[in-house]
Amino acid sequence: MSGHDNLAGLTDRWYLDDSTWSKVRNALLFVALIGWIGCGAGLALDPDRFYKSYLVGFAYATFTCLGGLFFLQVMYLTGSAWSVTVRRIVEHLVAAIPACAVLFIPVVLGIHHLYEWSHVEEVSKDPILSQKSGFLNVEGFIIRGVVFFAIWSFIAWKITSQSLAQDKDQSIAHMDTASRWSAPGLVFTFLTVSLAAFDWLMSLAPHWYSTIFGLYIFAGGGWTFISTMMIICQLFRKNGILAKSITVEHYHDLGKWMFATTAFWSYIAFSQYMLIWYANLPEETIWYKIRWEGGWEVLSYLLIVGHFFFPFLVLLARGSKRNLGLMFGMAFWVLFIQYIDLYFVIMPNFYKSPAPHWLDLFGWLAPVGTVGVVFWSRFRGKALVPVGDLRLEQALGHQNI
Amino acid sequence: MATTATLPQINKPLAQELNPSLVEGNLSYHEVTEQVCEIVEGAVHRNWYIGFAISFSIFLMMVGMLGYQLFTGVGVWGNNAPVAWAWDITNFVFWIGIGHAGTLISAVLFLFRQKWRTSINRAAEAMTLFAVACAAIYPVMHTGRPWRTYWLFPVPNLDLNMWQNFRSPLMWDVFAISTYGSVSAVFWYMGLIPDLATLRDRAAVAGKHTRAMILGVFSLGWRFSARHWTNYEKMYLLLAAISTPLVLSVHSIVSFDFATSVIPGWHTTIFPPYFVAGAVFSGFAMVQTLLLVTRWALGLENLITSKHLDNMNKIILATGMIVGYAYATEFFIAWYSANQYERFVFFNRAFGPYWWAYALMVSCNVLSPQIFWVKSLRTNVIVTFIMSIFVNIGMWFERFVIIASSLHRDFMPSSWGYFQPSYVDICTFIGTFGFFMTLFLLFLRFIPCIALSEVKGAMAAQAHLPGHEPVKGTTPVHAGGHH
């Protein structure tokens, strides 16, 4: 069909002004700085607590970016058109993965505070942990971490660089190359993300194991990723950026993904819980038992209601997914409750009762702020939408029918 | 920096690359109708009778075997301690799994706006219903007294004097599968209504009044009015949304049959999503097997194109990898758990007496689908056909491996055993294929095997995409405008 002049998105400016860019950059830098200052103070005052709070924030930021990597690859593999309008934002978020590698350093430094299996003395006294020491050991943990980040960064670079190159020459070859990298990329992403979840989070309770755990963590990352997208797009809109390019139709589709990831997380979480509860084997139920006493049960209930029932029922209706204000609020709720989920996974391993600490805030702010700075710095001088993508016209005129 | 945007220009070859045509040969709507209706209106081909005679004979063998089992007892099967659950549950899970492609194609791919699904959804959904029918045979017959099957349902009874055990995953299966079967049937029939009305009108024009009347009853007064279409589209979307969780729930609950136990090799938390992926994997393989033969026999190559093979093989590759991911995770965690029973079961699975079944499963499900990384192999009919058979075999063996290899070496070595099927097991299983094929052949003869109205809808949507031509025989409505 010829003639695309009546696409409203074409009247948008597809580049940021330098002043807007630097204003936001400065704000994000400030946030990250505050986070790191708080972390620094925490490291001096209470290093043990710092590492624990920081791990929650690190996992939060990293798995959110990895959720973006999943999304980006799936969009290329399925030849999705609607998502082209928002894809540049995803690319920039994914490009922050190398920064997460730097964020991993404090986790390595705090390894003896976090992981029981890192104490060789204790492991030698524990017959179960001794058998696992071929995998759960300090060298292996670091090497694997480096390999994970190398793989993710490589895939992310391969895909995002194709999209940026396409801005200039509008060649379909870049789209094909990105798709070709996405297929093996997705395979490696799944394998490494699962192993990372086992390494960083499951091994906090080193006697415990669950085969579905990798999917559980990845599902949460996908959820926060898509909600982050919802918030960024809407903040753009409120400031007149891409306001006509990203239409209610795109928000509707983002909302569908929020709904889908809500349901998927709940499915995975329920499967894990139900099977462990039903079989009632002490070595497995212990993980839930400690989360069911000493005040942690409040978080358990909160997750059932806030991580499943509430978002599920709200997002179910078509009308809510097309209600921008509601979706904006819901996305913030998701970001909050997913923090609770990671807190629920990590903290009961250390504390018999929930004891909120000021470092929880800074431990979250520092990694998330850092990712924010890296993410935002990528916007400078680049188009806000993939202007060379051949599906852009179709994406701008996208309608849910 | 640029302030006024210029979009990339889409010429015809690019448009084809971005959104390949869903039907080949530049067909008009009328030509699609003619081609598909001809199959059910024209004379019956000799090969159909041959195929039907063979399938029906195999089906009769199954009936004979079930009769023998009924009058003699479940002991005619090979099941025995320690493998008390063997081919019956293997075949049950196998057939339930086959059905999943139909629901995925009709519901999930609909929600994902995958328009290519329209050429294959009708046949795939039919396979779902037939596969559920095949699967249902096993639990019903395993009860030993099929006339008491109603005891499975929580209906008031005086002859049992017991209330059903709602804590049993087998009970959940009853609900999951009966819901699945009934929703799939409604969805399938819903989609059929406009096509049945087309057949009705064609029969009326041709002066075949009895045929028109029968079809008229089944098309529920469909008149192709705009109002009918609006309601239909809404209903379709709702049913797709209702069916989508069923794709996940049915096989998840089937996996609970095993995973809620404490048997090493059965009890593992990844079972639900792993079973779902495996079901979709095997279902697509069966769709490929049957549709490749169907499209060749009925000359439907222009409607079920190499693009369809390509897409389905990509799904086979993806789901095969998910299954491989689950195998790997299970193995890794069995080692990681440092639980000697877990470790033993998985070592025994790969290197014990059933090593051959395990090797067959891994090579068919994980290794051989890797050839689908190559596009020319994904679109090759012969390769696809052979691979689809491989996957069918591999997925049957997956269930057998899970079930038999986890059971055959009990906790006490004195109760170790080795399961061997009896001839009744084998003939009953082969017989279910006869049953399945008999139903499928009847479907091909009496019902349009391609969803006419949906294919046409997809053609119309395609014509509106940038760079695409209007459908042959139509004039563009808004020249230069945009929808």
List the defining traits of the structure above:
heterodimer, A: 401 residues, mainly alpha, 17 helices, globular, B: 483 residues, Formate dehydrogenase/DMSO reductase fold
Give a description of the structure.
The complex is a heterodimer of chains A (401) and B (483). Chain A has helices spanning 18-45, 47-77, 84-94, 97-109, 111-114, 120-125, 127-132, 138-169, 172-200, 213-238, 248-279, 282-289, 296-316, 318-321, 324-346, 358-377, 392-396. Chain A has 401 residues and is an all-alpha fold. Chain A has one domain (5-393). With 483 residues, chain B is mostly helical. Chain B has one domain: Formate dehydrogenase/DMSO reductase domain (Formate dehydrogenase/DMSO reductase fold, Up-down Bundle), CATH 1.20.1630.10. Chain B contains 17 helices and no strands. Chain B has helices at residues 12-18, 29-41, 46-72, 87-98, 100-111, 121-142, 169-205, 209-218, 226-259, 271-298, 306-336, 340-351, 355-367, 375-378, 381-407, 423-446, 452-463. The radius of gyration of chain B is 25 Å and the shape is globular. Chain B starts with 11 loop residues before the first helix and ends in a 20-residue tail after the last helix. Chains A and B meet through helix 7, helix 9, helix 10, helix 11 and helix 17 of A and helix 1, helix 9, helix 10 and helix 11 of B.
Q: List SSEs of chain A in N-to-C order.
A: HHHHHHHHHHHHHHHHH
> Most extensive interface: pair and counts?
A-B, 59 and 51 residues
The secondary-structure class of chain A comes to mainly alpha
Mean pLDDT of chain B: 93
* Biggest sheet statistics of chain A: none
- Structural class call of chain B reads mainly alpha
Silhouette of chain A: globular
Q: Give the helix level of chain A as a range of percent.
A: over 70%
Mean pLDDT of chain A: 95
SSE sequence of chain B, one letter per element: HHHHHHHHHHHHHHHHH
Return the CATH topology of chain B. Formate dehydrogenase/DMSO reductase fold
Q: Low-confidence segments of chain A, ≥5 residues, pLDDT <50?
A: none
The number of domains of chain A: 1
Helical region count of chain A? 17
